[in-house]
Fold these 4 entries.
Entry 1:
Amino acid sequence: MKNKLILDACCGSKMFWFDKENPNVLFQDIRSEEHVLCDGRKLEVRPDVIADFRQMPYEDGSFKLVVFDPPHLDNANETSYMAKKYGVLKRKEWKYDLKKGFDECMRVLEPNGILIFKWNEERITVSKVLEVFGKQPLFGHKSGKASKTHWMCFMKGL
């Protein structure tokens, strides 16, 4: 793990990574599984480490960059295509889970480390999530008028 500069705290199927085997990244997820989706495509969740983003097994200050793309659905049936692809938050616990995950991501960042947070507003707005975090991002991006996906950047210590 010493050569890993980047942590993807909930990598899922590594959908947004250009290099899904990037040697600088430690890919983590709470699950390791395969599924055949409704359109016949194969979905693989194969992290390097199986761990919960709410309680990660790394020392403080272990990474220069952390990517945090947690599940954004709090109402999906756990056997549904969407749940298999993106994971599911527990409806009554999402605030606690996201806050704990955000705090863990900050803990494992080195001083002045960068946290990239990705969120989709399908069910829960960004403003509600940021209220739970208690911290505003430095900057961010919404992926277009029709898109509900947001990317945000935080820096440890700021």
Entry 2:
Amino acid sequence: MAERRTSRSKACPDYERNLVLYYYGDCADAEREKIISHLEVCNLCRDFLADLRLLLPLTVKTDEPGEEFWQSYSRDLRVKLA
């Protein structure tokens, strides 16, 4: 079973902001190459990037109400309209 980290990784201060841009693909080519080279030698930044890959997708997940919500909503709306 895969081990789940419970603590947040820290990146090198000079790279933290750029790692976020790198994750989103929003950094210039030269900066991207610099980050790739740095990631080859820096465990802190590799762990930080791994955390970004786990956590950032969770911030954009939509919260779709289930069928029970819509049935209740429909029932409540009909009561209010009556």
Entry 3:
Amino acid sequence: YYRKCGNTNNLHPHHIIHRFKDQRDDKDNLLVLCFDCHVGDNGLHNGKWKIEELVPKELIRELKIRYGLLKK
């Protein structure tokens, strides 16, 4: 799990690769974010930061390959 800040209150799961095709709830595909980092004024969903700032590009690539969204 990756975290944007050190806040341990009001935590939310967020998928690195969206769940549009299947469940994709494996732990490698989840971030743990506080409310503000997730959906608050400074949050990911408000465009204040991008997943790539927190998750290594290699993991994002590996997940896309695993889910059939990218070829090796």
Entry 4:
Amino acid sequence: MTGNEPEVVEVAAHETHPLRLAVLRRDTPTKEVVFAEDSWPGTVHLAVRIGDELVATSSWVPRDHDATPGVHAVQLRGMATANHLQGTGLGGLLVEEGCGRMAASGFGLVWARARDAALGFYERHGFVVEGDGFIDGPTQLPHHLVVRRLATS
């Protein structure tokens, strides 16, 4: 590895905060970037690192999905790619690596509250839009639930 190649790494919750602020809270009424679930047992924070810089982050929270009772599920939260690198495949790398890790850990489903502006991204990565849209409280932006079934080993 030359140091310029993207690498998916596990990080501490606080390391996700700068990208959450820059990407997910830009132009929203709230600037809060700490999620209560950040410190829950089993929560995993993944990031894409290029050299010394974190350029994409995500958090994976073990949490049931109401529409699929009995399925071991994980919620994808805080998915953010640096603004200048969006559309370069780094978010896809992160989501695919995360889904692979979650499947290997026995999760059968990933779900997220996805911004409508990002629905195409999620659909390209095997997620299906579920139910009616809604306005997210903290961001005041339109969202839909998205789900992806995982093949567990």
